[in-house]
Model the fold of this input.
Amino acid sequence: MLYNEPSPLETKVLTRRFGLPNSASLETYLATEGYQAFLKAAKMKPEEIIEEVKISNLRGRGGAGFPTGMKWSFVPRTSPKPKYIVVNADESEPGTCKDRLLMENDPHQLIEGALIAGLAVDSHGGYIYVRGEYRYLIEILDKAIAEAYAGGWLGKNIQGTGFDFDLYTHTGAGAYECGEESALLESLEGKRGVPRIRPPFPAVAGAFQCPTVLNNVETYSAVPAIIRDGGAAFASLGVPKAGGTKLTCLTGHVNKPGVYELRLGFPVKQMIEEVGGGIRNGKKLKAFIPGGSSCPVLTAEELEGATMDYDSMAQRKTMLGSGGVIIMDEDTCMVKAVLRIMRFYAHESCGWCIPCREGTTWIRKVLQRFHSGGGTRADIDLLGDLGKNMLGRTFCPLGDAAAMPIISFVQKFRNEFEAHLDGKPCPYEHAERLVAV
Amino acid sequence: MTFSPELEARFDKLLKSYPPGRQRSAMIPMLMYAQDEVGSVTDELIEEVARRVGVTPLQVNEVLSYYSMLHRKPLGKYHVQICTNISCQLRDGDKLWEHACKKLGIGHKEVTGDGQISIEEVECMGACSWAPAIQVNYDFHHSMTPEKLDQLLEGLRKKQ
Ligand SMILES: Cc1cc2nc3c(=O)[nH]c(=O)nc-3n(C[C@H](O)[C@H](O)[C@H](O)COP(=O)(O)O)c2cc1C
Ligand code: FES
Done:
C-alpha cells in the first residue's frame, strides 16, 4: 500500500512498481523486468558486478553513506569460509519510514539485490533482519521468498545458472541499537545487541564470524536497476560523487508529509515548497533535520542554496543520513524538541559504555528540568559540554548520534534555552508546567 | 510445553534457518512468535526455548531483558502503542498519548481492569510521514486524532 500521494517531481527508480496492481507479487515483478538484472549478473564476473556498482556511485542508504561497491570489494571472496548477505531492515532512526515501503510494495526487488550481492562476493545465503514491529512486512517478505523458491529464483541452481542462494527473514524484538551493524550481527546470533569492537569489520568477520556484506534495504533495492540499466545511468541521476535517487521521508510541519523518491542533489527549498506543499498553516520554517534525529539541526538561513546530497549537507556540518527529514515551523519549542530526541537516545543507549550510558541520561535529566522551568544559565553550557564529551568517545556511533543533536540545538537555538530560564513559562506552550520533574 | 501446529511449524523452520551449531540464533524469533500465542514470556516458555536451542534458561533470561518487545507480564488483549517520538510529537503525538491515558485511566504499560486494553508510549515505529502513528498489536494506524483514537478504543473494548 501507499500512504501518501506521489509527487510529479519524483524520479521513480526504486519505486517504479509502486502502485501497480499486486506490485509485491512475483508475477508483477517478472512482467516488469524483474530478475533480469540477476540473469545478467550471473553472466558477469564478480569483479565486473562490483565495478558496475562502483561506477554507479551508490552510497549506503542506512545513514553512514559508505560507498557500496567499495564495501563489497573488501569481502575476501576466495576465503574458504561461508559468506553471508545481511539486509539491515531494522529501520528505527526517528524520522525514517522508507524501507517499510520498499519491502511492502516491492519485496522481490530487495531479494534480487541480495542475490546480486551474493554473486558479487560468492555468498550463498542471507538474512533479512527486520525490526520486530514490522511483523506484517515479515509476512510479506516470507510470502515473496516462498514465491521466489517456487519460481526457481532462490534455492539450488537458480534458473540453471549453477548459483545457489538461500534467504531467510529474522525478526528483531525492539532495540534501536540493533540497527547498528555490529550490534545487529550479535542479535542475529541470539545475543544482546551489544556492539562489537572493530576491526575486524563485518566484511571480514560478520555474521557467525564469517565474511559478510551488510547493507540497508534501500541500498540493496537499488542494485537491480544498476545492473539492468548500467552503473553510469544510475550515477547520472545524482550528483558527481553520489549516484541515483534517495527515498526521502518528509515529516513534521509540512502540508504534504510523505515518502518521495528524489534524485540526489534535489534543492531543499523546492523539496519543502513543491514536494511537501510548504509549511503547514502558512507558517515560517524554523529548523530542519536532514536525515533522521541524529543529524545536526540546520536553521532556515543555513538552508540557503542547500541540496539533498552528501556533500551539500557535509558543507553545512550535518549529514544526509537515512533520508528522514524533520521539518519544524516557527512555533516549535526547540527545548521540547531536543528533549524528546534525547529521551530517545537515553532510552536506547545499550548501556555497554559509560560515556554514552551516563551522558545521554544526564542530558535528558537536565533538559527535563529545563523544559519544566528549573534550568539555570550554567545548564546551557553543561548541555553542550556533555554532548562534546560524548562525541567520538563511545564504543559505537550511538554516542555520536546522541551528541550531534544536543550540541547543534544548544549552539543554534541558545536564545530559546535562555527564554526558559528562571522559571519562565515555555514561550511556546501555554499549558501550566511543573517545576522539577 | 505444547504449542499450536502453526507455531511448531514456525519453530521447525526457524531452527533450520541458521548454520549448523548456530541454533541459538533462533532464540529471539522463537520467543517473539511464542509470546503472541502464550501471552507473555513465562518461566515455562523460557525453559522450553532454552531446551530447544541448546542454552540454559539463565542465558535466555539475560538476552530477553535487553529487548523491549519481549515482556514477562501479560499485556492487554489489544496492546495500543502510541509513538511520541519527534516526528509524531510535532504532529501532537504527545497529546494523543495523554489523551489515551486519561481516557482509559491507565498509564504506561498498564492494562485495563477487564484485561482488554493496555497502552505503551513507544519510540519511533517507522510511520513518521503519516504521524501521529499508533500500533494496535501489529497493525498500524496512521494520522491519528483524539477522535479517531476514541472510536478505535470503543471498538476494542467491545471486540472479543
Ligand atoms: C545507533 C545506530 C543505529 C542504526 N540504525 C540503522 C537502521 O535502523 N537501519 C540501517 O540500515 N542502518 C542503521 N545504522 C547504520 C548501520 O550501522 C550500517 O552503517 C548500515 O546498515 C550499512 O548499510 P549501508 O552501507 O547500506 O547504509 C545504524 C547505525 C547506528 C550507529
Ligand atoms: S516518530 Fe513516530 S513513527 Fe517515527
